[in-house]
Amino acid sequence: MPSTRSKAVTEKPGAKDPKTEALQSVAVPHKTFILPSKRSDASRFLTLPNPSSGVLSRYFFDPTAGLYEFTAVSSTQFAPKSILFAAKDGEEGEDKHRFRSYVLKKAELLIATPIDVLFFMLPIVAPADNAGSTSNMFQPLDDILDSQDELSQHLRHVLYDITFRPTLERRMQAICDIMDAADETLYRFSEQKLLNELIAKANRMVAQGLPASLEENFIRRVLDPPLMSVKRDDVVTTTVSATASKEDSQDLEVEETQSASATTVSTISGQPSGLATPATQPSTVDEISSSESIARLLRLRIALSFMKQSYLPIHLVNKVEDSLKLSESPLDFTPLETRLKELADLRAEALASHAIGDYTRKRGFEEDDDAERAEAKRRKEEEKKKASESRGVRELKKVNTSGMKKMSDFFKKKS
After folding, report:
1. Number of domains, the chain
2. If we measure between CA atoms, which residue out of 67, 72, 15, 71 comes closest to residue 46?
3. Distance CA 170, CA 149 (A)
4. Where is the Ribonuclease H2 subunit B wHTH domain (predicted)?
5. How does pLDDT run across 9-54, given as a tens digit for each residue?
6. Distances (CA, A) of 128 to 50, 52, 166, 186, 299
7. 298 lies in a domain?
8. What's the Cα-to-Cα distance from 11 to each of 19, 65, 88, rounded to whole Å?
9. Could you tell me the CA-to-CA distances from 180 to 184, 304, 367 in Å, in that order?
C-alpha cells in the first residue's frame, strides 16, 4: 500500500509554456493518482499487459521501490460525490494561476498499490504452449528473457533494468528451481513452488484481514446456518364464538384461553411461524474451534480465488486447482467441503419445511373459506324458500297442532 505521505498527482495535457498556459486557462485534469511519497527520479508510468488477461493497463514502476498497479476508489452511482482540489495557504508562489482550485465531477482516486513482478514472469517462464519450448530446462535468466521476441517495450524496460535486477532474480527463485553453474544461476519453473508461494500470499492476506465486503458476502453469509422455525405455545390467544338463543337474538361470548407451557423449538417444523432460530449453534469449545478453522479455510480459498482470477494466466489457473485437489496438497479443504455440503442440505430441508408450512396454512384458510361460502349459500337458499311461501302457509306454520289428528287418520281403514 502507498505511504501515508503519498502525494496526489493530477494528469493534464502538456503545455509548451506553463506560464502562458496558466494565464490562458487552467485545464481540469481527468484523473488523479495517489503515488508513493518516496520514489526516485527514475520512476515512470508504464503500459504493461495484464498478467491474467493480457489487456494493456497502466502501471507505475520505480526501480528502487518496485512495481505498482492502480486500484480505483470511487463513489457509487447511488451516492455520487465530487472532489475539490485547492492549494494550501502560502503555496501559491509568484504565479497564483498555476494553483487555481478546481472541482472533479467524478470522485475517483487511482491509488498505487504494490504488485509482485513474478506474475509478469509467469507467462514467460511457463507459456501456455510448451511444445518446442525450453521451459522445462535449466536456463540463465538472460537466455529466458532473450528468447521472448514479443515482449512489449515497456515490459523490457522493467525486466532489463539494472537497479531492479536483484529484485527480479529474488522473485524468480520463489517460483523456479535453481541450479548454480559456474558463475551463473540457472532457473526452471516449478508448479509446486508457485503453489507454495500463492498459499503463503493467501496466509498473509488472511492474517491482515480480508476487506469487510468480502468477509460479509463470502464468509459470514456462506457459513451462517439456515433459519429454522420456532413453535411457541405460550402465546395468549382470544377466540370469539357466537351462540344463538331460543329467541331470535344472538349473544357474543368471549372466551380467553392462555397456555403456560414452555416454548418448544423444532429443528424442522411443518408449520413455521414468524419466529426463527439458527439450525446449529456451536456451544462447546471444540465446536467453536472447528467453526473457526473452517472459516479460516474459506478465507484462504477466497484469497486464492482472487489471486487466480486477477493475476494468473488461464492455463496456470487450471494447474493450480488440480494441484490443490491432490492428497499431497499443502492445504486440505475436505473439512470445508463437508461443512458446506451439510449447510446445503440444511438449507434445502428448511426450504422444503417452509414450503410445507405455507401449503398447510394456505390449505387451512381455503377450507375455512369453503365452509363460510357453504353456510352463506345455505342461508341464502333458506331465505329464497321463505320468500316463495305464501302468507297463508306461513300463518299455518304458526298454528299449534299438538293434540290434533293428522289428515291421514281419517282415511285409514277401519279394523
Report:
1. 2
2. 67
3. 24
4. 119-320
5. 555 444 445 444 443 444 566 788 899 988 889 999 999 999 998 8
6. 15, 12, 27, 21, 29
7. no
8. 17, 22, 19
9. 6, 32, 87
Q: Which of 115, 138, 172 is the last residue of a domain?
A: 115
CATH number of the domain that residue 70 is part of: 2.20.25.530
Query: Is residue 218 a part of any domain in this protein?
Result: no
| 289 found inside a domain | no
Cβ-based neighbour number of residue 226 at 10 Å = 19
Neighbours of 32 (CB within 10 A): 18
Domain range for residue 259?
227-278
- Residue 168 has which C-alpha cell? 527480479
pTM: 0.64
Residue 187 grid coordinates = 532457473
Rounded to whole angstroms, the Cα distance separating 109 from 83 reads 10
Whether 325 is covered by a domain: the verdict is no
> Contact, 40 vs 61, CB < 8 A?
no
pLDDT band at residue 286, thresholds of 50, 70 and 90?
low
Tell me how far apart the alpha carbons of residues 115 and 230 are, in angstroms, rounded to a whole number: 51
Q: Band the pLDDT of 98: cuts 50, 70, 90.
A: low
Phi, psi of 73, rounded to the nearest 5 degrees: -120, 115
Considering only the C-alpha atoms of the chain, give the largest distance between any 2 of them, rounded to a whole number of Å: 146
